[in-house]
Amino acid sequence: MGVEIERKFLLANDAWRALGTPVLLRQGYLSADPQRTVRVRIEGEQGVLTIKSKSEGASRGEWEYPIPLDDATELLDRLCERPLVEKYRRRIQYAGFTWEVDEFLGENAGLVVAEIELPSEDAVFDKPDWIGQEVTADKRYYNSNLIRSPYSTWTDTKR
What's the predicted TM-score (pTM) here? Predict the structure, then answer.
């Protein structure tokens, strides 16, 4: 079993836009149950099936498998819950870690989140100056929750 240890942050400014190459991701959920999620994703020309366990802090079990692009497309078009999550992702190297900056589209347009995967929950890392408030504990920012409560429907001021 793989373990994903990930922290999420909002962005403090637009300096990240000059970094990395944006790649379109389309993803949908066969199961968005908080106990277990099953996600289908197309990133560029690659299909991927991902299964994740419930989060415990910043950690959760993760199993990821490549699948044929045609299968991923059919699953997204025919079986996944709506709306699909579409976003541009930039992978940006900084101080020995890879930051993934996701700029969401569609019903989640306007949302931009940066994630960093870490080797342990207590790993020390430097933050680029474009990283803002941490939102790891805020479940609204989970991609699987963005299908039930898209960013465009949020009304509070903590956007």
Answer: 0.91
